[in-house]
Amino acid sequence: MSGLPDLESLRLLVLVGEWGSLGRAAAELGVSQPAASKRLSALERQLRLVLVDRTRRGSRLTPAGQVVCDWARRVLDEVDGLLTGAAALRAHRDAELRVAASMTVAEHLAPGWIGELRRAEPALYVGLQVTNSTSAVELVRAGEVDMGFVESPSIPSDLAYRRVAVDRLAVVVAPTHPWSRRRRPVRPAELAATPLVVREAGSGTRETLDRALTAADCGPAQPLLELGSTTAVRSAVVAGAGPAVLSVLAVATDLSEGRLVEVGVEGIDLRRALCAVWPSGRRLVGPAAALLAIAGRAGP
Fold this sequence. Notes:
It comes from Streptoalloteichus hindustanus. This protein is of the alpha/beta class. 47% of the residues lie in helices and 22% in strands. The protein has 12 helices and 11 strands.
Protein backbone atom coordinates (compact mmCIF):
# COMPACT_ATOMS: atom_id res chain seq x y z
CA MET A 1 0.00 0.00 0.00
CA SER A 2 1.50 3.32 -1.05
CA GLY A 3 0.74 6.63 0.63
CA LEU A 4 -1.84 7.35 3.29
CA PRO A 5 -5.63 7.66 2.94
CA ASP A 6 -6.73 11.27 2.74
CA LEU A 7 -9.02 12.59 5.45
CA GLU A 8 -11.91 13.40 3.10
CA SER A 9 -12.02 9.77 1.95
CA LEU A 10 -12.15 8.64 5.57
CA ARG A 11 -14.95 11.15 6.28
CA LEU A 12 -16.83 9.83 3.26
CA LEU A 13 -16.54 6.23 4.51
CA VAL A 14 -17.79 7.23 7.99
CA LEU A 15 -20.77 9.09 6.47
CA VAL A 16 -21.67 6.13 4.26
CA GLY A 17 -21.71 4.00 7.39
CA GLU A 18 -23.93 6.50 9.20
CA TRP A 19 -26.40 7.15 6.37
CA GLY A 20 -26.36 3.84 4.51
CA SER A 21 -26.37 5.89 1.33
CA LEU A 22 -23.51 7.06 -0.88
CA GLY A 23 -25.71 9.85 -2.27
CA ARG A 24 -26.52 11.27 1.16
CA ALA A 25 -22.87 10.98 2.21
CA ALA A 26 -21.81 12.85 -0.93
CA ALA A 27 -24.39 15.58 -0.28
CA GLU A 28 -23.14 15.94 3.28
CA LEU A 29 -19.60 16.56 1.95
CA GLY A 30 -20.84 18.85 -0.84
CA VAL A 31 -19.61 16.69 -3.73
CA SER A 32 -21.38 14.88 -6.55
CA GLN A 33 -22.29 11.22 -6.18
CA PRO A 34 -20.01 10.15 -9.09
CA ALA A 35 -17.10 12.01 -7.49
CA ALA A 36 -17.84 10.37 -4.13
CA SER A 37 -18.05 6.94 -5.75
CA LYS A 38 -14.72 7.51 -7.48
CA ARG A 39 -13.12 8.62 -4.21
CA LEU A 40 -14.47 5.57 -2.36
CA SER A 41 -13.22 3.21 -5.07
CA ALA A 42 -9.78 4.81 -4.84
CA LEU A 43 -9.77 4.22 -1.08
CA GLU A 44 -10.71 0.57 -1.60
CA ARG A 45 -7.88 0.14 -4.13
CA GLN A 46 -5.44 1.83 -1.78
CA LEU A 47 -6.37 -0.40 1.18
CA ARG A 48 -6.93 -3.46 -1.04
CA LEU A 49 -10.24 -4.11 0.69
CA VAL A 50 -13.89 -4.08 -0.33
CA LEU A 51 -15.38 -1.57 2.06
CA VAL A 52 -18.91 -0.96 0.71
CA ASP A 53 -21.62 -3.14 -0.82
CA ARG A 54 -23.40 -0.99 -3.42
CA THR A 55 -26.97 -2.02 -4.25
CA ARG A 56 -30.05 -0.34 -5.69
CA ARG A 57 -31.41 0.02 -2.17
CA GLY A 58 -28.35 1.85 -0.87
CA SER A 59 -24.77 1.35 0.22
CA ARG A 60 -23.83 -0.75 3.21
CA LEU A 61 -20.45 -1.31 4.82
CA THR A 62 -18.91 -4.74 4.49
CA PRO A 63 -17.54 -6.36 7.66
CA ALA A 64 -14.08 -5.09 6.68
CA GLY A 65 -15.59 -1.70 5.91
CA GLN A 66 -17.12 -1.51 9.39
CA VAL A 67 -13.76 -2.20 11.03
CA VAL A 68 -11.99 0.38 8.85
CA CYS A 69 -14.84 2.84 9.52
CA ASP A 70 -14.32 2.50 13.29
CA TRP A 71 -10.60 3.14 12.82
CA ALA A 72 -11.31 6.08 10.54
CA ARG A 73 -13.63 7.63 13.11
CA ARG A 74 -10.83 7.49 15.71
CA VAL A 75 -8.35 9.04 13.27
CA LEU A 76 -10.77 11.89 12.51
CA ASP A 77 -11.38 12.47 16.22
CA GLU A 78 -7.62 12.68 16.81
CA VAL A 79 -7.21 15.13 13.92
CA ASP A 80 -10.03 17.27 15.31
CA GLY A 81 -8.26 17.25 18.68
CA LEU A 82 -4.98 18.23 17.02
CA LEU A 83 -6.58 21.16 15.18
CA THR A 84 -8.45 22.30 18.27
CA GLY A 85 -5.31 22.13 20.39
CA ALA A 86 -3.24 23.98 17.77
CA ALA A 87 -5.87 26.72 17.52
CA ALA A 88 -5.88 27.08 21.30
CA LEU A 89 -2.09 27.39 21.37
CA ARG A 90 -2.23 30.15 18.74
CA ALA A 91 -4.95 31.96 20.63
CA HIS A 92 -3.59 31.95 24.19
CA ARG A 93 -2.41 35.58 24.24
CA ASP A 94 -5.78 37.14 23.44
CA ALA A 95 -8.14 34.42 24.56
CA GLU A 96 -11.44 34.99 26.32
CA LEU A 97 -10.71 31.86 28.36
CA ARG A 98 -7.04 31.39 29.26
CA VAL A 99 -6.00 27.91 30.39
CA ALA A 100 -2.66 26.40 31.47
CA ALA A 101 -2.24 22.64 31.50
CA SER A 102 0.51 20.22 32.42
CA MET A 103 1.88 18.28 29.48
CA THR A 104 0.05 15.01 30.13
CA VAL A 105 -3.29 16.81 30.35
CA ALA A 106 -2.49 19.14 27.43
CA GLU A 107 -1.40 16.34 25.12
CA HIS A 108 -4.07 13.77 25.86
CA LEU A 109 -7.16 15.36 27.43
CA ALA A 110 -7.42 19.14 27.08
CA PRO A 111 -7.92 19.27 23.28
CA GLY A 112 -11.02 17.09 23.60
CA TRP A 113 -12.39 19.17 26.47
CA ILE A 114 -11.79 22.44 24.63
CA GLY A 115 -13.28 21.01 21.45
CA GLU A 116 -16.51 20.09 23.27
CA LEU A 117 -16.66 23.56 24.84
CA ARG A 118 -16.21 25.29 21.49
CA ARG A 119 -18.87 23.12 19.87
CA ALA A 120 -21.27 24.45 22.52
CA GLU A 121 -19.90 28.01 22.21
CA PRO A 122 -18.51 28.38 18.66
CA ALA A 123 -17.54 32.05 19.08
CA LEU A 124 -15.49 31.40 22.22
CA TYR A 125 -11.77 32.17 21.93
CA VAL A 126 -9.78 29.71 24.08
CA GLY A 127 -6.04 29.95 24.72
CA LEU A 128 -3.98 27.04 26.04
CA GLN A 129 -0.49 27.25 27.54
CA VAL A 130 1.34 23.91 27.75
CA THR A 131 3.76 23.69 30.66
CA ASN A 132 4.52 21.58 33.72
CA SER A 133 2.40 21.47 36.86
CA THR A 134 4.55 23.88 38.88
CA SER A 135 4.47 26.50 36.14
CA ALA A 136 0.71 26.04 35.67
CA VAL A 137 0.23 26.83 39.37
CA GLU A 138 2.38 29.96 39.08
CA LEU A 139 0.43 31.16 36.04
CA VAL A 140 -2.82 30.78 37.98
CA ARG A 141 -1.37 32.64 40.98
CA ALA A 142 -0.12 35.47 38.75
CA GLY A 143 -3.52 35.88 37.10
CA GLU A 144 -2.08 35.12 33.67
CA VAL A 145 -4.61 32.32 33.15
CA ASP A 146 -8.16 31.80 34.41
CA MET A 147 -7.60 28.20 35.44
CA GLY A 148 -5.04 25.44 35.27
CA PHE A 149 -4.93 21.66 35.04
CA VAL A 150 -2.18 19.92 37.00
CA GLU A 151 -1.06 16.40 37.82
CA SER A 152 0.81 17.12 41.07
CA PRO A 153 0.09 14.93 44.12
CA SER A 154 -0.37 18.05 46.28
CA ILE A 155 -2.25 21.30 45.64
CA PRO A 156 -1.03 24.57 47.25
CA SER A 157 -3.36 25.80 50.00
CA ASP A 158 -3.92 29.16 48.31
CA LEU A 159 -5.63 27.53 45.34
CA ALA A 160 -9.08 26.02 45.00
CA TYR A 161 -9.19 22.73 43.13
CA ARG A 162 -11.39 19.95 41.88
CA ARG A 163 -10.33 16.48 40.80
CA VAL A 164 -11.36 15.84 37.20
CA ALA A 165 -9.68 12.49 36.49
CA VAL A 166 -7.48 9.76 37.94
CA ASP A 167 -4.30 8.75 36.15
CA ARG A 168 -1.80 5.94 36.72
CA LEU A 169 1.93 5.93 36.15
CA ALA A 170 3.56 2.83 34.70
CA VAL A 171 7.14 1.59 34.63
CA VAL A 172 7.95 1.09 30.94
CA VAL A 173 10.96 -0.23 29.02
CA ALA A 174 11.87 -1.05 25.44
CA PRO A 175 11.27 -4.70 24.39
CA THR A 176 15.06 -5.20 24.31
CA HIS A 177 15.54 -4.18 27.96
CA PRO A 178 16.19 -7.03 30.45
CA TRP A 179 13.22 -5.91 32.56
CA SER A 180 10.85 -6.71 29.69
CA ARG A 181 11.42 -10.43 30.36
CA ARG A 182 11.33 -10.44 34.13
CA ARG A 183 8.59 -12.38 35.89
CA ARG A 184 8.67 -10.68 39.29
CA PRO A 185 7.52 -7.10 39.85
CA VAL A 186 10.09 -4.40 40.52
CA ARG A 187 10.37 -3.46 44.19
CA PRO A 188 10.61 0.21 45.26
CA ALA A 189 14.25 -0.06 46.35
CA GLU A 190 15.29 -1.50 42.99
CA LEU A 191 13.36 1.17 41.11
CA ALA A 192 14.93 3.93 43.21
CA ALA A 193 18.43 2.52 42.65
CA THR A 194 18.00 2.23 38.87
CA PRO A 195 18.92 5.26 36.74
CA LEU A 196 15.71 6.34 34.98
CA VAL A 197 14.76 8.59 32.11
CA VAL A 198 12.76 11.26 33.93
CA ARG A 199 10.89 14.51 33.43
CA GLU A 200 12.33 17.77 34.75
CA ALA A 201 11.87 18.91 38.35
CA GLY A 202 8.51 20.66 38.65
CA SER A 203 6.60 18.17 36.52
CA GLY A 204 3.72 16.31 38.15
CA THR A 205 5.01 12.98 36.85
CA ARG A 206 8.41 13.47 38.50
CA GLU A 207 6.87 14.69 41.76
CA THR A 208 4.44 11.74 41.93
CA LEU A 209 7.26 9.24 41.42
CA ASP A 210 9.61 10.89 43.94
CA ARG A 211 6.89 11.12 46.58
CA ALA A 212 5.94 7.46 46.11
CA LEU A 213 9.56 6.31 46.43
CA THR A 214 10.20 8.58 49.43
CA ALA A 215 7.07 7.23 51.14
CA ALA A 216 8.57 3.74 50.70
CA ASP A 217 11.79 4.94 52.42
CA CYS A 218 13.76 4.63 49.19
CA GLY A 219 14.51 8.27 48.40
CA PRO A 220 13.85 10.06 45.10
CA ALA A 221 14.48 8.62 41.63
CA GLN A 222 18.00 8.55 40.19
CA PRO A 223 18.03 10.37 36.84
CA LEU A 224 19.79 8.80 33.88
CA LEU A 225 18.41 11.48 31.56
CA GLU A 226 16.28 14.48 32.52
CA LEU A 227 14.06 15.69 29.68
CA GLY A 228 11.56 18.52 29.36
CA SER A 229 8.57 16.73 27.85
CA THR A 230 6.71 13.45 28.10
CA THR A 231 7.20 12.90 24.36
CA ALA A 232 10.97 13.23 24.73
CA VAL A 233 11.04 10.75 27.63
CA ARG A 234 8.88 8.29 25.73
CA SER A 235 11.10 8.54 22.63
CA ALA A 236 14.24 7.95 24.69
CA VAL A 237 12.75 4.81 26.24
CA VAL A 238 11.59 3.47 22.86
CA ALA A 239 15.18 4.02 21.62
CA GLY A 240 16.47 1.87 24.49
CA ALA A 241 17.97 4.56 26.73
CA GLY A 242 16.55 3.01 29.88
CA PRO A 243 13.40 2.59 31.98
CA ALA A 244 10.98 5.42 32.70
CA VAL A 245 7.82 5.98 34.70
CA LEU A 246 5.14 7.62 32.54
CA SER A 247 1.41 8.14 32.47
CA VAL A 248 -0.52 5.29 30.88
CA LEU A 249 -2.28 7.98 28.85
CA ALA A 250 1.03 8.80 27.17
CA VAL A 251 2.13 5.24 26.39
CA ALA A 252 -1.13 3.35 25.77
CA THR A 253 -0.57 3.11 22.00
CA ASP A 254 3.10 2.14 22.42
CA LEU A 255 2.11 -0.63 24.82
CA SER A 256 -0.64 -1.99 22.58
CA GLU A 257 1.62 -1.96 19.50
CA GLY A 258 4.63 -3.46 21.26
CA ARG A 259 7.03 -0.53 21.15
CA LEU A 260 7.10 -0.46 24.95
CA VAL A 261 6.56 -3.08 27.66
CA GLU A 262 5.01 -2.32 31.05
CA VAL A 263 6.92 -3.76 34.00
CA GLY A 264 5.01 -4.67 37.13
CA VAL A 265 5.84 -2.75 40.30
CA GLU A 266 4.73 -3.50 43.85
CA GLY A 267 4.93 -1.75 47.17
CA ILE A 268 4.18 1.78 45.91
CA ASP A 269 1.03 3.50 44.70
CA LEU A 270 1.57 5.27 41.36
CA ARG A 271 -1.96 6.54 40.90
CA ARG A 272 -2.53 10.27 40.91
CA ALA A 273 -5.35 12.76 40.60
CA LEU A 274 -5.54 15.21 37.72
CA CYS A 275 -6.99 18.44 39.08
CA ALA A 276 -8.31 21.76 37.89
CA VAL A 277 -7.00 24.69 39.96
CA TRP A 278 -7.98 28.34 40.27
CA PRO A 279 -7.49 31.14 42.84
CA SER A 280 -9.00 30.35 46.23
CA GLY A 281 -12.07 32.40 47.07
CA ARG A 282 -13.01 32.91 43.43
CA ARG A 283 -15.97 31.08 41.93
CA LEU A 284 -15.56 29.89 38.38
CA VAL A 285 -18.28 31.24 36.09
CA GLY A 286 -19.05 31.30 32.37
CA PRO A 287 -16.67 29.41 30.04
CA ALA A 288 -14.32 28.45 32.89
CA ALA A 289 -17.16 26.78 34.80
CA ALA A 290 -18.34 25.09 31.59
CA LEU A 291 -14.84 23.73 30.87
CA LEU A 292 -14.57 22.41 34.44
CA ALA A 293 -17.89 20.60 34.05
CA ILE A 294 -16.81 19.05 30.73
CA ALA A 295 -13.48 17.91 32.16
CA GLY A 296 -15.22 16.33 35.15
CA ARG A 297 -17.59 14.39 32.89
CA ALA A 298 -15.05 13.35 30.27
CA GLY A 299 -11.93 12.59 32.30
CA PRO A 300 -10.85 8.93 32.54
